[in-house]
Input
Amino acid sequence: MKNLKNLLAGVVLTTTCLLFSQTAFAQKPAGKPWNAPDAAVKVKNTSKGDDAVKEGKDLYNQHCKSCHGAKGKGDGTKAEKIDISCGDFTSAETAKKTDGELFWKTTEGRKPMPSYKEKLSDSERWKVITYIRSL
Output
């Protein structure tokens, strides 16, 4: 009888862990397509070098990390409260995007991501993009 109780307890524990892991690590939907205009896609990054990466990292940590995570994987502390994925800056999909596209999205924003047009200068936004590329 004791072995049966232990077995049942193990099954319940395993089932609970599986259910928790599926809900805790379920991927969120990407949200609606968000395409930058052709003119924005062609814009070149004006920020380069180690200093830009360092300054971009500081700005990223201040403005982006809470949603996009310390390593840009979309797993920041606020990410779980957002209905759609925050996006993974280290993904192949992001690597395909031009710096101009990322700059445009950072500038314009769309719900739930805010616009940084008024919060960061053009130079600061380019430095954030330069940092994101270093991830």
